[in-house]
């Protein structure tokens, strides 16, 4: 202990103990430079405020002298100053003693970091479990430790063994999911009401993203390491975090519209944001909303240690939160962040500004030590005055003094200001440069032919390509092979760690070359893997996705040595009637030109790009734990030998031939009657749940008494117990996928089926007869109906009695053959249904849903209004598919279409996020209804035909139609018949878009302002409102404006639901939680166009508030009354001028001899005239004009005399 204190004795005091020089003994002394004296002061400050609390056994720092819990966050930040001081001594050493201090400080860092590592390694079981469950209950209390990478890069040896390397590699897998797993955030509080509700936090996601990038390709043994000690991070995982982070900023979470903790994300130490404008916006938002005289508030309505907080409980009641307005505690900690950030940016004025502000609030001890207190609070006796005059009262310091990690950042800031350290020394990995402008990325593209035949076909168009065989010795394989190989990364028998769980590899991973011993591999993108999902069979969609991926690479290929390399394989299945489609030829020729979709590309052979591509070593596949890393792991070797020789091509399957004796036997039996064939035909169509044509709106009005048999499945399933009353029926659940062993999914979708009339007629039909019918017909649609019946009543594993190579042929085998044929012949309706029957799934479905959710978009599936199921948080893939199948029941076609649309929506939100502005909930079922309605309108066909056309659209056309629905662009549909098929082919073609849809999606008012000179088309505004309502789109700034309305009334009533003004006590106007609360009330309105009129009425009410016409609007505002009154005023004016409404609503009203316009011959939703829906928002006969008049007539609070400014243009 004595040695411990002698080493830490202050240098200034030690000088006093030096003996006087005498003639008998001479003590030589070297004078200290001024820099040495200053460093000694900071050393004394570090020891007195930080290191004196370090545990001598574990090396960890407690939260305070009275609280022995060690928080990861506090420890990492607190040790930074020790690390910085060690580098400062190393750089400015005056004498050998200074070098000794350098080593001592470095070892203190190592001891603490290793203490953290050992603490986490003791929780390895939780780490392993979390990779599967992703449950907060299995979290290890430490989401990240990116500072390990920075300290290792600076030369410190923190990791000592390969076992520790394996653990840290699994820790990488742990934090990969940070973008989709709710946690408790930087302050360990979760939702700001402190009820223990986790939520997605931008601070957690940002630091996780920074950690992933910092750890990538980092050798944990430093200069002494080798391939086995290198950490591997899949670039796509960091990119997911980046995308979510960008979509959230400057918001922190659902309950916190902004948080000062984001300063650590946009600046030191994470430097996690690449967009300079977003960094500036976030910093500006934090400063404008949270800065005070004594520091920054953590977030708005933060009650921690305020005078109004009840210290006897940890949580707050919702109504309490508003009490904390303007009296939130202010934390000097964030002045320290701003000083360091300004030093990194070279902003001397900001450094001076925040340094002066910090100096005024530091606490000075008797021995001249400067301490940073935890926070400053308003004294209880001054709270009322602070309410009246925010920022006027003198605050007092509370909490710990010093706050250890604030003290550490203060010392770091001082070392930077006095130039003992350069910014680059605190950031040896150069993360601060991530926001710097970088040169354009050139994407290398290689086109390969599947075989010689395709190679020759391309030569006719003057396109020379190599075949897959000709690129040897480079081996080309699909992305699923790379995914399987990465599953071995991080495996450790000693620690019982299984390695990587995710099977997803994105375009950033497949755009590299990989070396394994003496072999080089190239991998095709995941989007071309036909075995994953049927959408890969559509070459048009593949080309479209291929272009999007090229554009994605341009913006996302960062901090990687070499250029991205994309390998495109052209297969037999992409041919159209044996010919190369012109769209593929056009795409290849554009690639030859060197520029496509705004991206620079270079087209060439694979061997030409070896020297310019990024090559990653798959050294982790060696038998490291067996002591022979140069030899491949036995299971890897077996996998390579088994799979690498397989061709990438996928030949369409065929139905097995029926043996002659079986066929002869079937001929002697009674042949199926024509009536039976006709009754069986159309079985698939009768399972569909899409409302058609005129039923679309009627479904909302008569939702409780829907008689359509296609919707009866839900009640049957809820009220009827599973039964096997059909003789010989074997209800076997379908397999979850066509590959691999049969597994019973949780939802068991075929356990109890609703029987259609034709199904009942065939319950006693012999299977042999059905198989004979299957062979007699050449129409795949008829084969599909027969197989649908067999699956429903006999199950997928039922043996048909036919043998192929002495192997019994099951219904599943026949259905697979049908699926492959339908893919080849592009019969997409049949493809979707058979894929659903087989249990085919989108591998990326859970990821697609998560991509939407983490960008603050909720998702609902199922047909409105009674069968919708809402997905509000990330869920496992099996559970997600269960939710979708429960929502649609027997309707396999729409269930598969829902999966497909979710994937497209996720693509759009990644590439064109502006399409989703002011949308909080994506109602996929309602979008499907609107798509069918739009097709019926465009093709001028019946509802049944529109539903059939929708499900038979190719994946590319489906995506194209969805895009037009989302963007509001006008479109036309061209029709062409295919030879030998009863199904027509439809193409969605953009027409000349109106100004409504150009640029970004704007508010209702701006749309109308831009539309003034455009010729009005009948049905245009009805369609516009119906689309916006179906998409839940609202004007900009809508939710904060609704908040302002609630401040002046007791509540807002919509469709019987009341939104009380008490929510303003709990939530701020900018909170996402508040927006979701408003959205949930609006979504009780089933009719989309009526919903939009209600939104317009709310916007008019906001004008009353913004112009401060009345301080109080009344008790409960019934918004629907405004719409009803506006409609009545509209009809009255229509009667006066002889408008279009005289042909419907007014005519019926006159016939009834009533003063009220009750009849709706036009079919308008919610008893509102359809011509009112089809009116432009502004103008003398616009909807907004009538709603303003309705407000003036309805609200009693408005002045009756004088003029009121009600300009709404």
TrEMBL record:
<keyword id="KW-0449">Lipoprotein</keyword>
<feature type="domain" description="GH15-like">
    <location>
        <begin position="36"/>
        <end position="148"/>
    </location>
</feature>
<feature type="compositionally biased region" description="Basic residues">
    <location>
        <begin position="668"/>
        <end position="679"/>
    </location>
</feature>
<keyword id="KW-1003">Cell membrane</keyword>
<feature type="domain" description="GH15-like">
    <location>
        <begin position="149"/>
        <end position="925"/>
    </location>
</feature>
<feature type="region of interest" description="Disordered">
    <location>
        <begin position="648"/>
        <end position="679"/>
    </location>
</feature>
<dbReference type="GO" id="GO:0005964">
    <property type="term" value="C:phosphorylase kinase complex"/>
</dbReference>
<keyword id="KW-0472">Membrane</keyword>
<feature type="domain" description="Phosphorylase b kinase regulatory subunit alpha/beta C-terminal">
    <location>
        <begin position="938"/>
        <end position="1135"/>
    </location>
</feature>
<dbReference type="GO" id="GO:0005886">
    <property type="term" value="C:plasma membrane"/>
</dbReference>
<comment type="function">
    <text>Phosphorylase b kinase catalyzes the phosphorylation of serine in certain substrates, including troponin I.</text>
</comment>
<dbReference type="GO" id="GO:0005977">
    <property type="term" value="P:glycogen metabolic process"/>
</dbReference>
<dbReference type="Pfam" id="PF19292">
    <property type="entry name" value="KPBB_C"/>
</dbReference>
<comment type="similarity">
    <text>Belongs to the phosphorylase b kinase regulatory chain family.</text>
</comment>
<dbReference type="InterPro" id="IPR008734">
    <property type="entry name" value="PHK_A/B_su"/>
</dbReference>
<keyword id="KW-0321">Glycogen metabolism</keyword>
<dbReference type="Pfam" id="PF00723">
    <property type="entry name" value="Glyco_hydro_15"/>
</dbReference>
<feature type="compositionally biased region" description="Polar residues">
    <location>
        <begin position="720"/>
        <end position="730"/>
    </location>
</feature>
<comment type="pathway">
    <text>Glycan biosynthesis; glycogen metabolism.</text>
</comment>
<keyword id="KW-0119">Carbohydrate metabolism</keyword>
<keyword id="KW-0636">Prenylation</keyword>
<dbReference type="GO" id="GO:0005516">
    <property type="term" value="F:calmodulin binding"/>
</dbReference>
<dbReference type="InterPro" id="IPR045583">
    <property type="entry name" value="KPBA/B_C"/>
</dbReference>
<feature type="region of interest" description="Disordered">
    <location>
        <begin position="711"/>
        <end position="744"/>
    </location>
</feature>
<protein>
    <recommendedName>
        <fullName>Phosphorylase b kinase regulatory subunit</fullName>
    </recommendedName>
</protein>
<dbReference type="InterPro" id="IPR011613">
    <property type="entry name" value="GH15-like"/>
</dbReference>
<keyword id="KW-0112">Calmodulin-binding</keyword>
């Amino acid at each position: 202990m004595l040695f411990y204190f002698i080493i830490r004795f202050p240098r200034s005091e030690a000088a006093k103990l030096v003996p006087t020089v005498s003639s008998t003994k001479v003590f030589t002394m070297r004078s200290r430079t001024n820099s040495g004296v200053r460093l000694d002061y900071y050393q004394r400050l570090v020891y007195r405020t930080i290191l004196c609390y370090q545990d001598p056994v574990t090396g960890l720092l407690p939260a305070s002298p009275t609280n022995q819990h060690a928080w990861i966050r506090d420890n990492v930040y607190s040790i930074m100053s020790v690390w910085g001081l060690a580098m400062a001594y190393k750089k400015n050493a005056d004498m050998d003693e200074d070098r000794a201090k350098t080593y001592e400080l470095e070892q203190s860092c190592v001891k603490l970091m290793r203490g953290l590592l050992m603490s986490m390694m003791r929780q390895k079981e939780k780490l392993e479990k979390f990779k599967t469950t992703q449950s907060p209950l299995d979290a290890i209390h430490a989401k990240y430790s990116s500072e390990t990478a920075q300290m290792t890069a600076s030369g410190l040896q923190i990791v000592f063994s390969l076992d520790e390397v394996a653990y840290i590699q699994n820790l990488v897998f742990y934090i990969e999911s940070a973008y989709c797993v709710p946690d408790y955030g930087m302050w360990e509080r979760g939702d700001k009401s402190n009820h223990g509700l986790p939520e997605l936090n931008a601070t957690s996601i940002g630091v996780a993203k920074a950690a992933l990038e910092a750890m990538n390709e980092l050798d944990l043994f430093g200069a002494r390491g080798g391939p086995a000690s290198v950490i591997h991070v899949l670039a796509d995982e960091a990119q997911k975090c980046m995308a979510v982070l960008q979509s959230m900023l400057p918001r922190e979470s659902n309950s916190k519209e902004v948080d000062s903790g984001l300063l650590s994300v946009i600046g030191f130490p994470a430097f996690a944001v690449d967009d300079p404008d977003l960094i500036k916006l976030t910093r500006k938002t934090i400063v404008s909303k949270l800065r005070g005289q004594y520091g920054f508030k953590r977030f708005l309505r933060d009650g921690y240690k305020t005078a109004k907080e009840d210290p006897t409980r940890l949580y707050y009641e919702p109504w309490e939160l508003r009490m904390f307005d303007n009296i939130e505690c202010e934390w000097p900690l964030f002045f320290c962040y701003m000083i360091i950030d300004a030093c990194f940016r070279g902003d001397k004025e900001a450094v001076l500004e925040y340094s002066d502000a910090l100096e005024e609030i530091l606490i000075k001890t008797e021995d001249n030590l400067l301490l940073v207190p935890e926070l400053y609070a308003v004294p209880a006796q001054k709270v009322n005055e602070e309410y009246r005059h925010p920022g006027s009262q003198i605050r007092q310091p509370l909490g710990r003094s010093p706050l250890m990690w604030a003290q550490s950042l203060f010392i770091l800031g001082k070392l930077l200001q006095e130039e003992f350290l350069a910014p680059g020394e605190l950031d040896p990995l150069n993360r601060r440069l991530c926001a710097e402008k970088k040169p354009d990325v050139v994407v290398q593209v290689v086109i390969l032919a599947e075989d010689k035949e395709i190679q020759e076909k391309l030569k006719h168009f003057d396109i020379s390509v190599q075949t897959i065989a000709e690129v040897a010795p480079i081996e080309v394989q699909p992305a699923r092979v790379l995914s399987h190989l990465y599953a071995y990364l991080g495996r450790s028998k000693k620690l019982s760690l299984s390695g990587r769980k995710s099977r997803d590899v994105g375009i950033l991973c497949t755009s590299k070359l990989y070396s394994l011993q003496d072999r080089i591999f190239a991998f095709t993108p995941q989007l071309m893997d036909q075995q994953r999902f049927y959408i890969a069979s559509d070459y048009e969609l593949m080309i479209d996705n291929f272009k999007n991926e090229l554009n994605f690479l341009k913006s996302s290929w960062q901090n990687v040595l070499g250029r991205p390399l994309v390998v495109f394989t052209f297969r037999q299945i992409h041919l159209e009637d044996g010919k190369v489609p012109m769209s593929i030829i056009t795409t290849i020729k554009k690639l030859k030109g060197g520029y496509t979709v705004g991206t620079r590309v270079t087209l060439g052979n694979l061997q030409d790009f070896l020297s310019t591509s990024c090559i990653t070593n798959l050294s982790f596949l060696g038998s490291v734990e067996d002591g022979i890393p140069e030899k491949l792991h036995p299971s890897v070797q077996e996998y390579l030998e088994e799979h690498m020789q397989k061709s990438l091509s996928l030949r369409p399957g065929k139905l097995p031939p029926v043996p002659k004796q079986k066929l002869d036997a079937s001929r002697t039996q009674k042949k199926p009657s024509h009536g039976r064939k006709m009754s069986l035909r159309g079985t698939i169509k009768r399972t569909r749940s899409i409302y058609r044509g005129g039923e679309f709106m009627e479904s909302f009005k008569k939702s409780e008494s829907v008689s359509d048999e296609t919707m009866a499945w839900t009640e049957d399933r809820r009220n009827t117990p599973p039964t096997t009353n059909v003789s010989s029926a074997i209800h076997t659940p379908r397999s979850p996928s066509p590959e691999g062993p049969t597994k019973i999914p949780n939802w068991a979708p075929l356990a109890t089926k609703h029987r259609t009339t034709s199904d009942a007629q065939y319950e006693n039909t012999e299977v042999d007869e059905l198989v004979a019918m299957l062979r007699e017909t050449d129409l795949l649609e008829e084969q599909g109906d027969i197989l649908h019946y067999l699956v429903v009543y006999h199950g997928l594993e039922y043996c048909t009695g036919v043998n192929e190579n002495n192997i019994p042929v099951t219904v599943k085998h026949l259905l697979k053959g049908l699926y492959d044929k339908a893919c080849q012949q592009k019969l997409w309706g049949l493809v979707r249904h058979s894929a659903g029957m087989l249990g085919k799934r989108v591998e990326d479905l859970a990821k697609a849903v998560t991509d939407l959710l983490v960008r603050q978009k909720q998702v609902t599936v199922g047909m409105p209004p009674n069968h919708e199921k809402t997905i509000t948080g990330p869920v496992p893939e099996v559970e997600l598919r269960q939710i979708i199948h429960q929502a649609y029941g027997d309707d396999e076609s729409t269930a598969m279409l829902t999966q497909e649309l979710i994937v497209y929506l996720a693509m759009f939100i990644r590439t064109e996020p502006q399409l989703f502005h002011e949308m909080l909930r994506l109602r996929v079922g309602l979008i499907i209804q609107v798509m069918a309605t739009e097709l019926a309108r465009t093709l001028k066909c019946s509802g049944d035909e529109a539903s059939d056309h929708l499900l038979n659209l190719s994946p590319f056309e489906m995506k194209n139609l969805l895009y037009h629905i989302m963007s509001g662009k006008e479109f036309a549909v061209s029709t062409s018949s295919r030879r030998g098929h009863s199904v027509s082919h439809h193409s969605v073609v953009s027409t000349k878009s109106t100004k409504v849809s150009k640029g970004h999606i704007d508010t209702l008012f701006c749309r109308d302002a831009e539309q003034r000179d455009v010729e009005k088309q009948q049905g245009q505004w009805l369609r516009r409102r119906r689309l916006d309502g179906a998409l839940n789109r609202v004007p900009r700034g809508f939710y904060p404006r609704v908040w302002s309305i609630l401040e002046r009334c007791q509540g807002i009533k919509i469709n019987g639901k009341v939104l009380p003004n008490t929510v303003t006590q709990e939530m701020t106007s900018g909170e996402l939680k508040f927006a979701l609360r408003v959205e949930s009330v609006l979504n009780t309105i089933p009719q989309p166009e009526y919903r939009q009129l209600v939104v317009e009425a709310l916007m008019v009410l906001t004008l009353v508030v913004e112009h401060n016409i009345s301080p109080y609007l009344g008790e409960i505002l019934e918004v629907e009354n405004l719409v009803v009154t506006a409609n009545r005023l509209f009809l009255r004016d229509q009667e006066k001028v002889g408008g279009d409404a005289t042909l419907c609503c007014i005519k019926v009203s006159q016939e009834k001899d009533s003063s009220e316009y009750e009849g709706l011959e036009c079919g308008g939703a919610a008893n509102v005239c359809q011509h009112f829906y089809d009116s432009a928002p502004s103008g003398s006969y616009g909807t907004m004009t009538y709603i303003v008049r309705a407000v003036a007539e309805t609200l009693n609070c408005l002045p009756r005399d004088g003029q009121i400014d009600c300009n709404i243009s």
